[in-house]
Structures are given as C-alpha cells and as structure tokens.
Amino acid sequence: MKSVAETIWHNGALMPWQAAQTHVMSHAVHYGTSVFEGIRVYDTPNGSMGFRLKEHIERLFASSKIYRFEHDFSAAQLIQGCSDVVRANGLTSAYLRPVVFIGEVGLGIHPPADTRCEVSIAAFEWGAYLGEDSLAQGVDVCVSSWNRLAANTMPTGAKAGGNYLSSLLITSEARRNGFHEGIALDTNGFISEGAGANLFVVRGQTLYTPPLTSSILPGITRDTVIKLAQAQGFTVREENLAREALYLADEVFMTGTAAEIVPVRSVDRLPVGAGQRGPITAALQQAFFGLFDGSTADTFGWLEPLSQ
Ligand code: PMP
Fold first, then answer.
1. How confident is the model at residue 36 (pLDDT cuts 50, 70, 90)?
2. pLDDT at position 31 over 90
3. Where in the chain is the domain with CATH 3.30.470.10?
4. Does the global pTM surpass 0.80?
5. Is the pLDDT of residue 227 over 90?
6. What is the pLDDT of residue 1?
7. Which atom in ligand 1 lies closest to the alpha carbon of residue 216?
8. Whose CA is nearest to atom 7 of ligand 1?
9. Is 224's C-beta closer than 6 angstroms to any atom of ligand 1?
10. Residue nearest to ligand 1 atom 10, measured at CA
C-alpha cells in the first residue's frame, strides 16, 4: 500500500503532497533521527473525531524531549495542523502521521546547537493494518528470534524512527517465515511487544500485559483497552510474562492505533485457545469499535472533534 494524499502539512503550511521534500543528506535519513506518531480519525455519528489526539501529540512532545529535539510548533498548532490536513484532503476518517525530524544540518552526529527540526503531518486513508479479515479471523504470529531493545540502549518509551529498525527485523522475519507478525521478547526473555503493537494475554477472566519495563512503547490503545476491560469488570495485570504464557493462553490479542485490536489465533503454529477469536477479545473489540459508531458511550472523553 502506498500512503498518499493530495495535500500535506509541512513546517506549518498546507501544500501539495509532492512539494514536501527533504534532502537525501538530511540527518534523519542517515541516522534515524526522527520521532513520530500514528493517530486515527474516525467517522462517527457526531462527525469526524480524533481518537485521543491530544495524548498522541503529548507523546510526540515526550519523544522529542527524550532526544532534545527542538522545533517551532506548539501542541495546539500541531493539533490544528492535524485537523487542517484531514479537512484539506476531504477525509472523514484518516490515519495521521506527524513526524519531527532533523533535516539537512550536516553529517556530524551531534547536530548544530541551533538545529530546529522539521515537522510534517500526513493524513491518508488506512484500513485494517493486518488486513480486513484480521479483526475477525485473527492472525498467526511467531516469537521473533530478535529481542526488543534492551533498557538503557535506545529508549522504547520514545516513538523514534530508529527504533523501527528493530520492528523491521521482527516483522520481516515473521513474514518470510509465513506469519502475519512477530512478537519480540525483551533481553530478560520476557514477552515485550509486536513490531508495531502491544500485546495482551487472557487467562480466565484476567488480562495480562507486559509492564512498561519490558521494553515496550506505552501504547495509547493499550491504555484504552486496559480501561475498557476494567470498566467491564475484568482484572488487568501489568506483569512480566514468560514465553509459554502465549502457548497456554485462552486468548491473545494485539493493540495499536494502526492495528486497532487484532486477535492472535496461533503462536509458533500452536493454536491459541480454540484457534479463533475468543469472547473477551470480541467483547473488547465491540467496546472499542462501539466508540466510533456510537454504541459505546465515550465516558473517558477520548473522542476529540477536529478544530475549525
Ligand atoms: N508498540 C510499537 C512498537 C508501536 O509502533 C505501536 C504503534 N504506535 C504500539 C506499540 C501501539 O501504540 P499505540 O496504541 O499508541 O498506537
């Protein structure tokens, strides 16, 4: 799939897609010096709504802070930019991709002290990340031979471009071996996350998910699912999980902005539970997608109307 639209927001202005160019000598091209977000806008009965848009932009600023990236835009300006680029493309639902990156400032690894990052926001249509069937049928995953980044090497709490080299190794190994996706262990051998999604394991009426210390990105969908599950009376435990927890689970699912809530039907070719989407995964999907068709009340205030 090619991610394209007519119009893009680039350094504060809307412009034709092709006009947002950067030089091949940009620092980010050579050293992976970017931080970014993935945000969805849903077409709801009350109009187009950003899902937890403010929190995604806050995470973008948190990622920038970790790397000391400076740019010229406030959170309010970026939220406005998100709204403007959705409207400019005539979209009612969209995937938004804000990115902050170091441009053409020379090849010294340490960028000049006055470096201001470039900032772009793309908006385009993006259906189910792992295919339309995946949400109902589930996906086949493997445990990756690649570990996730070790603590105090590259911070997985930052959504940084360079981290996705790890994700690329995980996902492309999985695809080569005939799986939809890979799940990485952390360097202590505990379950971490997928290439671009967090992971939940269900046993009985309890949901388990790796803690923030398992080299995961603190996913906003992960947080959403924790709150939706607790509201339905399930216990959610954030704790270290051994690999075999995947094999012995009643249900496994992955969460992410692009992935949404995807059931996992097998791990390393062992069926998870009955080998199909389980009832708790289905109930959480219903609660989650219900936010967007109005059948779930937005009690947490997660839906944000686009700014005018
Ligand atoms: N982990 C990784 C590595 C990711 O890229 C993503 C997608 N942003 C997630 C987890 C899920 O995060 P979120 O729910 O905030 O999209």
1. very high
2. yes
3. 7-124
4. yes
5. yes
6. 61
7. 1
8. 196
9. no
10. 197
Rounded distance between C-alpha atoms, residue 26 and residue 237, angstroms:
43
**Is 132's pLDDT higher than 90?**
no
Cα 254 to Cα 273: distance, rounded to the nearest angstrom: 15
Q: How far is the CA of 198 from the centre of ligand 1 (A)?
A: 6
- Report whether CATH 3.20.10.10 matches the domain 133-291: yes
Q: How far apart are CA 182 and CA 295, in angstroms?
A: 33
- CA 89 to chain centroid: 22
Ligand 1 nearest-atom number relative to CA 198: 10
The C-alpha atoms of residue 213 and residue 208 are separated, in whole angstroms, by 14
* pLDDT given for residue 131 in this prediction: 77
Q: Which amino acid, one-letter code, is at 298?
A: D
Domain limits, CATH 3.20.10.10, in the chain: 133-291
Mean pLDDT for the chain overall: 96
Classify strands 251-256 and 198-203 as parallel, antiparallel or unpaired.
antiparallel
* Residue-wise burial string across 266-278, b where 16 or more C-beta atoms lie within 10 A, e elsewhere: bbeeeebbeebbb
Give yes or no for residue 257 CB within 6 A of ligand 1: yes
226 lines ligand 1 (CB under 6 A): no
For this structure, is 65 an active site residue? no
Distance of CA 256 from the midpoint of ligand 1 (Å): 5
Mutate to test the pocket of ligand 1, among 221, 226, 284, 302 (most ligand atoms within 8 A of CB): 221
Classified by CATH at the fold level, domain 7-124 comes out as D-amino Acid Aminotransferase; Chain A, domain 1 (3.30.470)
* pLDDT, mean of residues 247-268: 97
Higher-confidence position of 194 and 133: 194
pLDDT at residue 47 greater than cutoff 70: yes
